Fold this sequence. Notes:
This protein has about 190 residues and is mainly alpha-helical. It contains nine helices and two strands, in the order αααββαααααα. It has one domain.
Amino acid sequence: xxxxxxxxxxxxxxxxxxxxxxxxxxxxxxxxxxxxxxxxxxxxxxxxxxxxxxxxxxxxxxxxxxxxxxxxxxxxxxxxxxxxxxxxxxxxxxxxxxxxxxxxxxxxxxxxxxxxxxxxxxxxxxxxxxxxxxxxxxxxxxxxxxxxxxxxxxxxxxxxxxxxxxxxxxxxxxxxxxxxxxxxxx
Length: 186
């Protein structure tokens, strides 16, 4: 059973997110803030964060709007949906570029930078999702993937996964888990 000691010592951010989803964690505000914080604090290299890999201004705008509106009950739903649509459009635009340079047999490899930008744009499209409690896993996956690709040129996310664990703990405290979940947490 996962407990407070495990939460405080875990270095597996992906497992921590799966745990939150699995226990029915319900604090949408905290999860949305976690999504935003991943972009702001997931360190890629010295003084370089996931935020710097958000190539498109529409994706950055989605993060800004999500941060400003997380926890606001009277937020502008039209603005949020418009920003989400723009973030999705940014991803889809990159996807079209990807499709135009990758042939069906993958004999032509797309530029690594494009794959990084695509992964970050896809992650940004999830931050304003109306179902953020389910989509946080996807957001984290694509942000970790982009971070690993940016540094190592491969999909090995282990180093960034440990950094993700620290970010999660900075946003979601043990008491929050106890308050907002349907399962006991000791």
